[in-house]
Amino acid sequence: MSAELICVGTELLLGDILNTNAQYIAQELARLGIPHFYQSVVGDNPDRLKQVIQTAIDRSNLLLFTGGLGPTPDDLTLATIAEFFNTELEERQEIIDDIQQKFTQRGRTMSPSNRKQALLPRGAEILPNPIGSAPGIIWQPRPDVTILTFPGVPAEMRRMWHQTAVPYLRRQGWGKELFYSRLLKFWGIPESDLAEKVSHLLNSVNPTVAPYANYGEVKLRVSARAMSETEAQELINPVAKEIQEIAGLHYYGGDSDTLASVAGQLLQTRGETLAVAESCTGGSLGKALTEIPGSSTYFWGGVIAYDNRIKEQLLGVSREDLATYGAVSATVAKQMASGVRDRCRTDWGIGITGIAGPGGGTPEKPVGLVYIGLASPDGTVESFEYRLGDTRGRDWVRRVSVSHALDRLRRRLRG
Amino acid sequence: MSAELICVGTELLLGDILNTNAQYIAQELARLGIPHFYQSVVGDNPDRLKQVIQTAIDRSNLLLFTGGLGPTPDDLTLATIAEFFNTELEERQEIIDDIQQKFTQRGRTMSPSNRKQALLPRGAEILPNPIGSAPGIIWQPRPDVTILTFPGVPAEMRRMWHQTAVPYLRRQGWGKELFYSRLLKFWGIPESDLAEKVSHLLNSVNPTVAPYANYGEVKLRVSARAMSETEAQELINPVAKEIQEIAGLHYYGGDSDTLASVAGQLLQTRGETLAVAESCTGGSLGKALTEIPGSSTYFWGGVIAYDNRIKEQLLGVSREDLATYGAVSATVAKQMASGVRDRCRTDWGIGITGIAGPGGGTPEKPVGLVYIGLASPDGTVESFEYRLGDTRGRDWVRRVSVSHALDRLRRRLRG
Questions:
Q1: Is B359 on the interface with A (CB under 8 A)?
Q2: Which CATH superfamily hosts domain A259-414?
């Protein structure tokens, strides 16, 4: 018994999109302990898709399809699967009703081409799509073949996977032994340093411990295989605890935690509030903070001070200091932090100013130089200097600056 | 004549890594005009890999492999390919010399396991790896089959691709006919509506026209096959022009254009400036605008007015109106737009206020209700209402709100 993934879409063969769906489903199959030995990508072409289906049913019995469920003529995954198994398509009124309702909610009218999305192979169950107009199917065209289809849009596929596919697969007896993992997240320590500190754990078998890193963030994935989640957690807990003790303040959270959510939770617990003043990050710090539902209880807002006139007019940064020290300086970062705190009347204020690049660097102030100011409720204002370099690009400098700012706040709130 | 990609690695089947190599090679094959209809992923397992090779040589004649060239026992791509074609492996002294030299340079000693990387099928050419220890091969085991192998490490694969594989493929007569494509981008029209308007073009053969959509944005890819880029452009131009005429103002740009870059360019041309006031988007609009290097010439900054106190204190929104109409209202959106324009002393001002969810909705003001205010240099202030629904989540509402705001500005600048 094994699963095979078939991703349909000419855009994948042209390299227009990255196949993140394949990684997601692979992780999920691994988590559920469902064996998975092959993946295929094929274009929106019925003959080639049929050939891929033929190869797949000769070696796998759970076929997972992504893509090709849309309303346009090149979306032909369902029609091709139905034809392969000599089954007619039939129109399902409940799907038309569902699409109609979604369109009405959005003040749009359903176009005739959407009717095509209501055509399902006779005998197939609907795999509901709570977000978009394209439903999937769950279908056993033969006793030894189970087919599940998903749209190519990642958000829709993931919701459908969790809401309907996983419970269905469990009912069918797949995924009994569970693969459960916990992600531990760190900021302020390089991957190699952390890996050395926990090297005695990296060869552990159950749970396993594996390091990852991206955008300056280091993660350790602790994974256990067990018959129940409780049992898996009991295997993971002591190892996670040991790692946290070794890492100290560098450890900031687990799983779905972000630096913004952790700093936010600390503010909320204290009943304190925050405002931000952003130059080179242009709103990215505000965006990160407000990604969290409910963040309005502690995050009030702030100023995007991209131009120096805004730094003066809306934050009260001294024109003289701007001229003397430059916009990218510890002095200005501190004035931005205290200025935004005072004008927004919050407890904490953060200021970020830096050179994101690619242009704007000088020998004394190179691309990647960033200052972060942090104004505290007790009236103190600190500044921190970072030299992030110019090799990894504008987006990287901006993202990492936001993380450093949130991490500084987090450490002060925990200290 | 067509190419097929075979990615080897159990880590891909476990979802531990994202298959960026597949996208890269797909883009490159498209650029070179080499037809490419299938991709496969298979684990480090000789029997399954042989099965995949069998399927591939029945339908393709250029087989590109990534992964499984390392020194560890699970790296068996070359040994399996050789066995499949009944060919012996032989040790190549020049590879051992090369690895030895690289190790010496890095102050390391070559381990016995690295000798394995010098074992190549008899008759195969070396595909040199200038970065790492694992070379690839170029091999014609049969007159109708050409095999190229690459390591899984993206940086090594890319260098080897450009340095040796592309020149080789061109010498063999591949990639003479070029495949060139242009992306046309639209906002404000649903995919199905646009597809219907251009339906007479969707079956066109050279160039082809294919629709895509994500996050409310619709794209048409116009792709032509020709002997030169000029010739390809001549095939694409009339079709692109026809589509742009049909779409009118819904068409906003091509290829690397974004709504933020297009609106920014229009501002820059006019020598006008912009400030933004963001509530539910929390800085996302500022972030989108400042993603573009050089945006400081027209984007000055603004206010993140997440809390109503900030709307009053920093934007001068009327407390009475906040109480009467609510923060999510056309009135407040307009006051935010004109308030930020006045206080930042820019030509244009945008205000965004809405309910991103998941909480905070009421029957009259449901999740997904968003108002956008637009204050113009002539003193007029408009507002626009959007009902984006609650099914696609907070992130979607925020992203689409930012795009709507930029699109409104763009239309006014073009109108």
A1: yes
A2: CinA-like (3.90.950.20)
